[in-house]
Amino acid sequence: MIRPSPSHRLLNLVQTMLILGGMAAIAWVVLGSIFGPEVTVLLIALSLAGLALAPSLSREFLLRGYRARPLGPREWPEGVAVLHELARRAGLPRPPELWYVPSQVPNAFAMGPPEESAVCVSDALLRLLTPRELAAVLAHEVAHIANRDLWLMGLADAMSRAVSVASWLGQFLLIINLPLMAAGAATFPWGALLLLVFSPTIMALLQLSLSRRREYDADLGAVELTGDPEALASALTKLERLAGRFWEEIFLPGRRIPEPSLLRTHPPTEVRVARLRALAPRRKMPALSPPRAAPPAGLQIPPPPGFRRSGYWF
């Protein structure tokens, strides 16, 4: 199982609770100022109920949207075997389902709670990475599932969206009441006005901070599961290089988000790689056979974007 040190667990818990607590406090103040405490409590209860029911619904919707197909032992036995071993080491109640995304963008992502999770890998990722790197990427996604990061990020996103809607509604009500305020028949506290204007931005920054924190922990969890920090560092380097950074530096110098930045969903790749390479190798994963040179049987890569009368399609 993933067993970080007690000090790391405590620090991680404190940081996560501070971020979520700050977001919850802002959400309570903003929603309460617009809807009142009774309606705010009702909205919170409905949001929590939605989070409890959303994983299975959103999972099926997303998989259908990505045109994903399940990958079983017959299509990719090496990947399924490694994913099952990673799930066993992480202490998951059941192995995640493995899905194939017919995309030419190298990507992997997880969805669902530990009891009903799935890991998706794109065709481009299977072609790009070596067996060791694929095992490390799968371990990163399994660590997200084991840490329940998907639920935490869903909670943060729900609070952020609620505050954004309340902020826009509050500003709309303020504009409607401007004639009354100009006539002196109504007043509006400036503190509340500033909170309505800036609360969505603050919530977004806190949400991004939480996302970066969870990525660092998933990196550490992947190393705990594979004992191979260099494999994940190598995979991250390849993905960063292929993501277009090289060409952006040539054709769009200075257009990227400055480093370091609060406007990132993921920490800078250079920092993640440096942290990984600072870790000593731990236990080794069983050998993973090389992935197939072509997509698994029966699965096709979609054609590149083409132009139709309705516009570009993917």
UniProtKB/TrEMBL annotation:
Q: Which UniProt keywords apply?
A: Cell membrane, Hydrolase, Membrane, Metal-binding, Metalloprotease, Protease, Transmembrane, Transmembrane helix, Zinc
Does the UniProt entry include the keyword Cell membrane? yes
Listed under GO cellular component are: plasma membrane
Q: How does it sit in the membrane?
A: Multi-pass membrane protein
Q: Which GO terms describe its biological process?
A: proteolysis
Write down the InterPro entries for this protein, in alphabetical order: HtpX_protease, Peptidase_M48
An example of a GO molecular function for this protein is: metalloendopeptidase activity
Kinase found in the keyword field: no
The organism is: Pseudotabrizicola algicola
Using the record for this protein, list the coiled-coil segments as residue ranges, or answer none.
Answer: none
Q: Its family?
A: Belongs to the peptidase M48 family.
**Which cofactor names does the annotation list?**
Zn(2+)
Q: What is its main location?
A: membrane
Give all residue intervals belonging to the Peptidase M48 domain: 81-279
Membrane-crossing segments per the record? 12-35, 41-62, 162-182, 188-206
For this entry, the protein name equals M48 family metalloprotease
What does the note accompanying the cofactor annotation read?
Binds 1 zinc ion per subunit.
